[in-house]
Write a structure and sequence with these properties.
The complex is a heterotrimer of chains A (324), B (334) and C (505).
Chain A (H helix, E strand, L loop, with lengths): L1 H14 L1 H16 L6 H26 L7 H19 L1 H25 L4 H20 L4 E2 L10 H4 L1 E2 L2 E2 H19 L1 H11 L1 H6 L4 H27 L1 E2 L7 H12 L10 H20 L6 H22 L8
Antiparallel strand pairs in A: 1-4, 2-3
Chain B lengths: L2 H31 L9 H26 L7 H15 L9 H31 L3 H20 L4 E2 L3 H8 L1 E2 L2 E2 H19 L1 H11 L1 H6 L4 H27 L1 E2 L7 H11 L11 H20 L6 H21 L9
Antiparallel strand pairs in B: 1-4, 2-3
Helix pairs in contact in B: 1-12, 2-7, 2-10, 2-11, 2-12, 3-4, 3-5, 3-10, 4-5, 4-10, 6-10, 7-8, 11-12, 12-13
Chain C lengths: L7 E10 L2 E11 L4 E5 L6 H8 L7 E6 L2 E3 L4 H6 L2 E4 L11 H5 L14 H14 L15 H12 L6 E5 L7 H16 L3 E5 L3 H7 L2 E6 L2 E7 L5 H9 L17 E10 L3 E9 L3 E5 L6 H8 L7 E6 L2 E3 L4 H6 L2 E4 L3 H5 L6 H6 L7 E2 L2 E2 L1 H15 L15 H13 L5 E5 L7 H16 L3 E6 L2 H7 L2 E6 L2 E7 L5 H8 L11
Parallel strand pairs in C: 3-8, 3-9, 6-7, 7-8, 13-20, 13-21, 16-19, 19-20
Antiparallel strand pairs in C: 1-2, 1-4, 4-5, 9-10, 11-12, 11-14, 14-15, 17-18, 21-22
Classes of the chains: A mainly alpha (324), B mainly alpha (334), C alpha/beta (505).
Chain lengths: 324, 334, 505
């Protein structure tokens, strides 16, 4: 009996481990530094997580449907550069929709290759990472992009303004999170995403058009990337053409931390949100107690491994792998 | 010869056909478009190419082993940078003082190699003991090891020019500089490992069907651990080859190297699912990418387009591979 | 008979999995130099028992003796060390390695520095392949071999150790007749050397050719052992099927309606040719044949998963083109697929969501999925099909096989199809659930559905069908009414022997 209960506690720990660790971590830092849970600090964290977070929301759909997207980093660089360039050429009102269209065309291209031609998503998006990087460099001629007249445009509002005292990036991030959470959890499309990722063959046998669902997930992902690029461009009003480099793997890290399986079929928008916030608060907490920003990399590493390990251990019922 | 055998032969030879195609294309196109005066297929040019492909190439050799084994390693870029810092910095350590510019080299190299092997071993141990997928383990390590790089020397670059070392790296044998020689010799050694040794043959079995390998009595855990140590070792060697001459490393160096290495390996025909692949073809993949890079420069294309072309070629290769495998009309569409 | 201790002996083996008692006190023994056949229907526990023998599963209770000594075998490796070798039905070879390397996998002969001792390897492997009279050398890459030759490599692997007991799991499933002869020679050769052989198969004629004794499993329990020379197929069949399952022939007169489905001269590549048949509403048509006869492929074509190369499909008299499962569903065709876990269900989803999956786009209130509508459908089919689950939130992966199958059937009934195709309706399902599902199929016909049942189990197909279509190598050999059909003429038809006794081309 006692053993059973211990087992149950162990399972609870393993299942909700990441949430429990998050709470413990927050309390710990709050005790170490009383500024940590202050409203402006919390808002600051959410705001600085917004760009990564918006991207992670989109990639969540791709991961749940059983695929990967390694191209979102270089795609985000592309969006940022394109919108900055077009801003001065055709004005922000046209630049923004044009940039969204171009970014989503890239996402659609990936979606067609992975969905309709059934190519391995890891390699396709690896290829697209490189190709879009090249596209961005060609587009920009290898130079940085800046908005010439930074004062004479309303463009900066998106990245720097605020609504009722809440910074716009936070509104965009949390608003998009709510929308996508509803899309995933409450609509027929969301159900199909889970079915395709959980068992693609069975989904096809149930009359679900798998290619179309996969295409949609990549369109959503690229829409979110375009949004992130817009936030980035508007915040900095100028950018290097490698601004998104490496973000693809940080995005995956956040999603994994949230508890989604890379095999597909599991994960939620809320969990990804938690994953993103954990990354954000770790970074912030470590900075507040006086550690350099890069310490968070090491901490993130340990947390990712621990989180996934505990999850697997709970499923197999033993801590260590049975591999001899 | 059956159709499946023919398809297989085509696939195995594809990368070399592609290289020949590149050579012809750039030679001919170069005549009309070349911005430089030299021939594309100039010997010096080709030797330089070999030298320039060495750093990614040596990592790609290790990646081939890891991928045949059914795993993947995303942390090599960070390992690359950390080994470089250790190699350069260790030459100033007090315990090595008094060894002189020449005497310190083996110790600096030894420290770098040790670093690479330890980092690889950490990945391997985690994969073995926790059962977490290598993709996730090394994705985490990619961040974690990069963190260690920064912790070592902050955001400052690490400098050290050891002229004896520079001379050594830049000395040449039969026109081949040290990096090129290292790449060729290592390709041969790893090919030998994968085709002639028990460990190499077991790697194919483990990658093809892990459970069957366990049942056959292969100790899969330690086996995978050794392969992670090997890729750590090779990444350290790559780092040595690259930084001995340049003498300066930034904390962001090596970013995306994992992706370049994987691209070369996949171009060489190694399957992501494991159990199949060839070290010699990876060599071909590395050369093909470097040829493209140089060739596009030779015909006056922006160097920026290289990434675009490589990415599209990678997708095209995957697409063709898929088309070769489609069985025709009666196939089950799932 | 024999006095020495048996090569292998199991006593009172019990093995349970969540929801299933797979083995319930099974005892079994093999003498040295004996071929002992293990028989049972799908789901009877053969494969579980085999995995216990090979050290892949640990029994919950019971004892295993080898040569009279009690042993525990925790891994296949330990089993191998005890001299028990399993020859898998699913091949476990590394495609990229040579035959020799596969044969000695895990114990490749070494030279210095960890090099493979190629000479020794090729010599030893070559000798084994020679003994098996294989037509290929040890150096050939396994990926280039045919399935039959791959199986030879598996068998060769078993011969590398001093095996006391060799377990063959459905070894002839993918072999030609000539290859079978070779295999039986090998088995007799092993037998002469005093090796005990466990031979698992459901092909009666093979078992009578090769075995000395026959043990029968049913529903996870041991039903008895017969001496092959003193028994006949009837006796064995009776033990296998028993009286617990009433599979008398269907005598219920079909209440035929209009023709629901008519298939005219349908062909699909090399899979099936010139297939024509009709199904009326209110009728159950059974498709019977060996694995690979093209039955499942016809179902998949009707459901839009394969493109036919010629022929026509008519629904209620109108010719239709079915290009995808979506258009099949729109035309009122539903398919309960052969492989429940891989094709039928999303195991990580709950019961309700699995049932409503094909119509989730239509169960909406505004843009959202309507919880109420979904639960109503789930409740309806739970009650109608008597699905046993605590609530709709239960993950389908946690249900028993029978209840899982009911979920798949419920999923398709909820689409109100005109034609319902059920492929292997009771594969891997316990006896109780089997008869429930049989009853359900008959009920559906009575309610006016046109039902196609594909089955590899003769009693089942005779029990549920109004008409039986026998297939052989992609062609329809004969159609039987339920009055005409007998076990004999059915077996002849699916073996390619037509009515006048000639073998079909």
């Amino acid at each position: 009996m006692a053993e059973e209960r211990l087992n149950a506690i162990g399972k609870l720990l393993a299942r909700q481990g990441i949430l429990i660790a998050f709470v413990v971590f927050m309390i710990g830092f709050a005790l170490l530094n009383d500024r940590f849970l202050a409203v402006d600090n919390v808002l600051g964290v959410v705001r600085s997580s917004a760009i990564l977070g918006v991207m992670a929301l989109g990639v969540t759909f791709v991961v749940i449907s059983g695929n990967l997207d390694l191209s979102v980093g270089s795609m985000m660089s592309f969006s940022t550069i394109v919108v900055l360039d077009l801003h001065d050429k055709i004005g922000p009102e046209l630049a923004i929709p044009a940039m969204f269209a171009m970014t989503m065309a890239l996402g659609g291209f990936i979606g067609v290759l992975v969905g309709y031609f059934k190519l391995n998503s890891l390699i396709v998006t690896l290829g697209m990472l490189s190709a879009i990087h090249g596209l961005t460099l060609t587009y920009s001629g290898g130079k940085n992009m800046d908005i010439a007249d930074k004062e004479g445009t309303w463009f900066s509002v998106i990245g720097q303004g605020s609504v009722l005292g809440v910074p716009v990036p936070i509104v965009v991030f949390l608003g998009l999170a709510c929308l996508l959470a509803i899309l995933l959890a409450k609509t027929p499309f969301g159900r199909k995403v889970y079915a395709v990722g959980g068992n693609g063959v069975a989904a096809t046998f149930s009359g679900i058009r798998r290619p179309r669902v996969v295409l949609m997930t990549y369109l959503i992902s690229s829409f979110c990337v375009a949004m992130a690029g817009l936030l980035q461009a508007s915040r900095s009003m100028g950018s290097q053409n490698t601004v998104g480099q490496g973000l693809e793997l940080e995005v995956l890290a956040a999603i994994i931390l949230g508890g989604a399986s890379l095999l597909g079929g599991s994960g939620t928008v809320f969990k990804t949100l938690i994953g993103v916030l954990i990354l954000g608060f770790i970074q912030n907490g470590l900075l507040l107690v006086g550690l350099e920003f890069y310490v968070q990399y090491v901490v993130t590493w340990l947390i990712i491994i621990l989180a996934v390990w505990l999850d697997i251990a709970a499923k197999r019922g033993r801590l260590l792998s049975p591999i001899a | 010869m059956t159709t499946s055998n023919r398809t297989k032969t085509i696939k195995r030879g594809a990368i070399w056909g592609f290289i020949v195609l590149e050579l012809i294309f750039f030679s001919v196109a170069g005549r009309f478009l070349s911005v430089s005066q030299t021939q594309f297929m100039d010997l010096d040019n080709m030797l330089l190419l070999l030298k320039q492909s060495a750093p990614i190439g040596i990592i790609a050799l290790g990646m081939t082993v890891i991928m045949i084994n059914g795993n993947i390693d995303l942390s090599v870029g960070a390992i690359f940078a950390l080994c470089a810092i250790v190699m350069l910095d260790s030459q100033t350590w007090p315990i090595f003082a008094g060894l002189g510019e020449l005497g310190v080299i083996p110790f600096a190299w030894g420290m770098a190699l040790l670093t690479g092997m330890v980092l690889g071993a950490i990945n391997g141990l985690i994969v073995w003991k926790t059962g977490v997928d290598a993709f996730i383990v090394t994705l985490g390590a990619m961040l974690g090891y990069r963190g260690l790089v920064f912790m070592y020397n902050g955001e400052q670059p690490t400098f050290l020019l050891n002229w004896t070392l520079v001379d050594m790296i830049e000395s040449s044998l039969l026109g081949l500089e040290f990096p090129a020689i290292a790449f060729i010799v290592l390709t041969f050694l790893i090919w030998f490992l994968m085709t002639k040794t028990v460990h190499g043959r077991n790697a194919y079995a483990v990658g093809d069907n892990r459970e069957a390998a366990v049942n056959a009595g292969i100790r899969v855990g330690p086996h995978m651990l050794w392969n992670f140590v090997l890729i750590g070792f090779l990444t350290a060697l790559s780092s040595i080859v690259f930084y001995s001459a340049s003498g300066s490393v930034n904390p962001n160096d090596g970013e995306l190297y994992e992706l370049w290495a994987i691209t070369a390996v996949v171009l060489g025909g190694t399957k992501l699912t494991g159990g199949s692949g060839s070290v010699i073809n990876t060599f071909g993949g590395v050369i093909a990418i470097q040829l493209l890079r140089k060739g596009l420069g030779h015909i006056g294309a922006d160097t920026e387009t290289v990434n675009l072309v490589i990415g599209l070629i990678l997708i095209a290769v995957l697409f063709l591979d898929r088309q070769l495998n489609v069985k025709g009309k009666g196939e089950l569409r799932t | 008979m024999r006095t020495q201790s048996p090569a292998l002996r199991l006593e009172d083996i019990v093995k349970t999995f969540p929801g299933v008692r797979a083995l319930d006190g099974v005892s079994f023994e093999v003498q040295p130099g004996e071929v002992h056949a293990l028989l049972g229907e799908n789901g009877a526990g053969k494969s579980t028992l085999m995995k216990v023998l090979a050290g892949m599963h640990q029994p919950d209770e019971g004892r295993i003796y080898i040569g009279g000594r009690q042993v525990t075998m925790k891994t296949p490796l330990e089993a191998k060390a005890e001299g028990v070798v399993l020859i898998h039905q699913e091949l476990s070879l590394a495609e990229e390695l040579s035959a020799a390397e596969n044969i000695y996998l895990g114990e490749l002969p070494r030279k210095r520095f960890g090099l493979v001792d190629r000479q020794t390897l090729l010599a030893k492997a070559g000798a084994i392949l020679e003994r098996l009279k294989c037509g290929f050398g040890p150096e050939v890459t396994v990926g280039d071999l045919s399935i039959a030759n791959k199986q030879m490599v598996e068998i060769a692997r078993a011969l590398t150790v001093d095996a006391k007991t060799v377990v063959f799991d459905e070894p002839t499933a993918s072999l030609t007749d000539a290859e079978k002869v070779v295999l039986f020679d090998i088995i007799r050769d092993l037998k002469d050397r005093g090796v005990g052989i466990v031979y698992i198969s459901h092909r009666m004629e093979e078992i009578f050719t090769i075995s000395d004794r026959i043990s029968v499993l049913r529903d996870g329990s041991y039903r008895g052992t017969l001496i092959t020379a003193d028994t006949n197929e009837d006796e064995v069949t009776q033990l296998m099927i028993g009286r617990s399952l009433d599979l008398t022939r269907n005598h219920e007169p079909a209440n035929l309606g209009a023709i629901a489905l008519e298939v005219k001269a349908l062909c699909c590549g090399s899979l099936f040719h010139d297939v024509s048949f009709k199904v009326h509403s209110g009728e159950v048509v059974g498709f019977y044949g060996l694995v690979g006869a093209g039955r499942t492929e016809i179902a998949e074509t009707l459901f839009g998963l394969r493109t036919p190369s010629s022929g026509a499909i008519c629904l209620e008299g109108k010719e239709v083109t079915i290009s995808s499962p979506v258009s099949a569903i729109e035309n009122g065709i539903s398919l309960v697929p052969e492989n429940r876990k891989e094709q039928g269900l999303v195991l990580g989803m709950n019961c309700r969501d699995n049932i409503t999956l094909p119509q989730v786009s239509d169960l909406t209130a505004g843009p959202f999925v309507s919880d109420g509508a979904e639960i109503a459908i789930f409740d309806h089919y739970r009650d109608k099909l008597e699905i046993k689950t605590p609530n709709w939130r239960q993950l389908v992966g946690n249900l028993s096989g029978g209840n899982q199958q009911k979920i798949v059937i419920g999923k398709w009934l909820s689409m109100h199809p005109k034609v319902l195709i059920v492929d292997e309706p009771t594969r891997g399902i316990d006896v109780g659930s089997k008869s429930e599902i049989h009853k359900l199929i008959r009920d559906l016909a009575r309610q006016g559905y046109a039902v196609i049942v594909i089955s590899s189990e003769m009693p089942e197909v005779m029990h549920v069908s109004d008409r039986i279509i026998a297939m052989y190598q992609g062609r329809i050999m004969r159609e039987f009414t339920s009055e005409e059909v007998t076990e004999d003429n059915l077996v002849q038809a699916i073996s390619g022997i037509v009515a006048n006794g000639d073998r079909a081309a």
